[in-house]
Amino acid sequence: MKKLIALVLAAVMVFALAGAVMAEEIPADYTQVKVFDGTYGFGDAEITAATNDDQSAFYITFECFDEDQILEGTIDDGIVTVDYDLTGFVAGDAQLIWDDAVASEEPWTPIGGEAPAEEAVAEDAAPAEDVVIDYAFDRSWPEEELKVAMAVYDTTDEQFLAMREYNDYLEQNFNIKFMYSESIASAEDEIAFVDSAAAAGCKAYFGYYNIAETETVKEAQAHGMFYAGGVGGVGYDQRPELADYDNYVGSYTLKSDLEVEGDHNGDYLGGYALGYAMAQKGYQHIAYCEGGASFGVQMFVDRKDGFIDGLTAAGYDNFSDADLVSGWPGTDEFAAQQTAVIAGDYDAVVSSFNVAMWFQPVMESGKQIGLAAIGEANETYKDFFDMGVVQTVVYDCEETVFGVYLPMAINAAMGYDDMTKQDGHPLVIPVTRWTITEAEQMDAIYEYHAAGNFFVSAEDFAKTLKGLNPAATSDTYEEVFNLTLDEALAKIQ
Amino acid sequence: MSEAAVKTKKPSKVNARLIGDMAPYIGLVLVVVVFYILTGGALLNGTNIQAMANNVITTAMCTIGAVFVFAAGYFDMAVGGALCFSAVLGAMATISSGSLFVGAIVILAVSLGLGCIKATLASFVNVPFFIFTIILGSIFSAIVLVIMGKETTVLLKNAVKPIPELDFTQMSIISVICLAVFFILCLIAFRYTPIGPKAKNMGGNVFAAKQSGISKTKTTFTVFIIGAIGIAIAAFLLMLRTRTVGATTAGSVGNDVMVALVLGGMPLSGGPRSKISAGLIGSITITVLNSGLVILGLNTGEVQIIRGIVFIVVVLVSSLSYRGKLLPR
In terms of Cα–Cα distance, which of B70, B10, A208 is closest to A197? Predict the structure, then answer.
């Protein structure tokens, strides 16, 4: 018995010593370490990964094939180069292991010390609303001017102009400069703008518009720019291959302020909100302008599907294909359908795009026809809301929806890698589009903006910048930007 | 009149003509210098020079080829449509076959085919040619939309086999080489072979040209084929660079070609004052101007105003070289 106990104790000591030896064998050049489990070509293993302060070198140890394995090498822009492989068998797994080390939720521990102070702070981070930023908002941060390129489809579009106002406001508070494209009509225009932006010294790229899809991300990455925005209109959640691009930061995903069952994209939710709101208001015969749905344009197909489901959810059962208005304004076909709707017994018209082309015909007819659209909180919509003509607007508030791209891009360009990934993958930040159903709501939003105010102020914006708020995490984006209509209105009352 | 008086031209007329001839070059130099200063040197940094080389290629190829067409008196407004059509079909062929070579052949064949269609209409149908090209441009765009169906873009990454990718610098080098070779060949053809003089004669006066023994049909087909080769090369390089083509591809090329010709000092009506250098100088001027305006970060209105001013100034100065009195046509 005594011999057995002695053997067991000896074995424990040997293993402990081996572990200690391995830990002690981590060269002095490496300052932080983490331990995590992984599965690779050689099987499962507990990995000990060490790196230096700027993560430009690695030292990895683990056991497989009943042998101790040691890999050592350098890291350049996330790509590992193996300089030393103890057994010569596992160098091929080095990249995967390093990627997992970075993505692992285990914190980097200073060798011989406790968890880094900033990690501890992050774990105990206060909610964004309680954070106080020590910054004068005098354009003194960042120290070197940071240029951000922004691709635009239509430089005269109202939504873009509103976004530009918000950007101008940010430029007054932070040492950042926006560079805008001309109206991009084709993939070559977009690629050319990426090149020009790089030549002008832009470090971040805001894909407010994207037509060349991943080629734009690739081109931006080739120039060392970080890309924040949708690719072909969607983000990582719908295009997992975007994780292959190291410089792709992420995008938003649109949510509705209505509760909708199932997982749906922003276009579906926008259509759903329109249908639901108008049915709830008691309209009996609703016409729907389907835009590009009849041509198979997916965005409009999704909006139409959402609209029909929204009607159904609100108990409206009077909709049929005969109530569809197809095509685009400016064509004879659309004009004929518009005339037929006005002359018919419709009491509402919902548009999957702008509804301004209905204002005059409705006013001239003298009929009480309610209008609804995916639109803007501008003076025109406000006035027609006040007159009772417009009844519902689904609105993407520029600073709360699109504004989230800006701190993503800025943090990435400033080198704060922990602000550019969620669980090791590109960011997907939920933001809410507002369903405005009351004139008072529209008035409040319009007047708040008209007075030069924004629902995400410079102080709020600063909370998402790691350089100004060390406690910021990737969750802070949602805390600051994901405002429902009620939360936004509560802020200004 | 004395011999001395016959031989001596008035100095003011000589100076005006010289200034008019040099206006495109002066304009280019001025645009480069002014924007170099305004952009703090960013206009001519290494990255931007490469970017401009990549951006100029499409317009320059089409414009150099279009010099022959416009010189012969044909106002072709279907350049953009033809480029888009060729690029889309070439990209589809590339994706289906997994071969850039197949795509290049398709682009060349389609472009030459469209060039021959235009040449046939120009040679045998007695209707002002520009009317045909307006309609042809719309037809080409419509056919592209039908061919593409519900897809809005054709992506080379969807090819059955991986298509080689060129990085930014490689693309710049290829663009410069292609441009240089095509320009030199067109320069030789325009100045040192009968093609150029025949085209200019036709553009000057088609009846006089016919009576001089110039075959309208042969010359017309020749100039449109040269134009089509330029369009084909532009389409291939554009497809290679962006790896994305669609119905909006080359949407502004038609206008850019005409602006480039005028900025290059060539009258759009063609004729004896046509010059092959107009294609190159005008294209480079537009590219430098656009690049400088983007880097400056001006708003849309300011950009349009500056472009308009530059255009008007260059055209006005170029017009100093135009002869005031012409024989009736």
Answer: A208
> Which of B151, B168, B288 would best serve as a mutation to test chain A binding (most A beta carbons within 10 A)?
B168
Is B275 contained in some domain?
Answer: yes
User: Which CATH number covers residue B186?
Assistant: 1.10.3470
Question: Which of B45, B50, B251 is the closest to A185 by Cβ?
Answer: B251
Rounded to two decimals, the ipTM of the complex is 0.84
- Which residue from A156, A178, A196 is facing B300, i.e. has the nearest CB? A156
> What stretches of B74-99 show up as alpha helix (H) in DSSP?
79-97
Domain assignment present for B216:
yes
- Residue contact A187–B244, C-beta within 8 A: yes
CB of A244 closer than 8 Å to CB of A421: no
Angle between helices B277-296 and B46-71 (to 10 degrees): 140
If you measure CA to CA, which chain A residue comes closest to B249?
A: A186
Amino acid (one-letter) located at A178? F
For B170, the domain range is 19-321
Contact B300 A213 (CB under 8 A): no
Residue of chain B minimizing CA distance to A297: B150
- The domain tally of chain B equals 1
Q: Which residue of A has its CA nearest to B50?
A: A195
Helix and strand element counts for chain B (H, E): 13, 2
Facing B47 at nearest CB: one of A155, A186, A198: A198
Asked if pLDDT for residue A340 goes beyond 50, the answer is: yes
- Which of B35, B39, B43, B47 has the highest number of chain A CBs within 10 A, making it the mutation to test binding with A? B47
Most A-contacting residue of B239, B249, B300 (CB-CB within 10 A), to test interface: B300
The set of residues, in sequence order, having a beta carbon less than 8 Å from that of B73 and lying 6+ positions away, is B202, B203, B204, B206, B269, B270, B271
Percent of all residues in chain B with a pLDDT value above 90, rounded to a whole number: 56
The pair of three-digit structure tokens given for residue A101, joined into one six-digit string: 């080390």
Count A/B contacts: CB-CB distance under 8 Å.
Answer: 103
User: Which of chain B's residues have a Cβ under 8 Å away from the Cβ of A221?
Assistant: none
Residue A1 has pLDDT above 50, yes or no: yes
CB contact under 8 A, B238 and A223: no
Q: What are the beta bridge partners of residue A392?
A: A372
Q: Provide the pLDDT for residue A123.
A: 45
In the structure, what pLDDT confidence band is assigned to residue A3 with cuts at 50, 70 and 90?
A: low
CA-based nearest residue in chain A for residue B295: A200
- Looking at residue B322, its amino acid is Y
Contacts of A224 in chain B (CB under 8 A): none
Q: Which CATH number fits domain A137-252+400-424+452-468: 3.10.310.10, 2.60.40.10, 3.40.50.2300, 1.10.1420.10?
A: 3.40.50.2300
Q: What is the pLDDT of residues B94-103, one digit of tens each?
A: 999 999 999 9
Residue B246 lies in a domain: yes
Residue A8's CB: how many other CB atoms inside 10 A? 10
Per-residue pLDDT of chain B (329 residues; tens, 9 = 90+): 455 544 455 556 667 777 777 888 988 999 999 999 999 898 998 889 999 999 999 999 999 999 999 999 999 999 999 999 999 999 999 999 999 999 999 999 999 999 999 999 999 988 888 888 889 988 998 899 899 887 778 989 889 999 988 888 899 999 999 999 999 999 999 999 999 999 999 999 988 999 999 999 999 999 999 999 999 999 999 999 999 999 889 888 988 999 999 889 888 888 888 999 999 999 999 999 988 988 888 877 788 888 888 888 877 776 666 555 555 54
b/e string for A246-270 if b means 16 or more Cβ within 10 A? ebbbbbbbbbbbeebeeebbbbbbb
Asked, for residue B5, whether it belongs to a domain, the answer is no
User: Which chain A residues have any C-beta within 8 angstroms of a chain B C-beta?
Assistant: 155-156, 177-183, 185-189, 191-193, 195-201, 211-215, 219, 222-223, 295-297
Asked if residues B277 and B33 have their Cβ atoms less than 8 Å apart, the reply is: no
Task: Report the SS3 class of residue A304.
Answer: helix
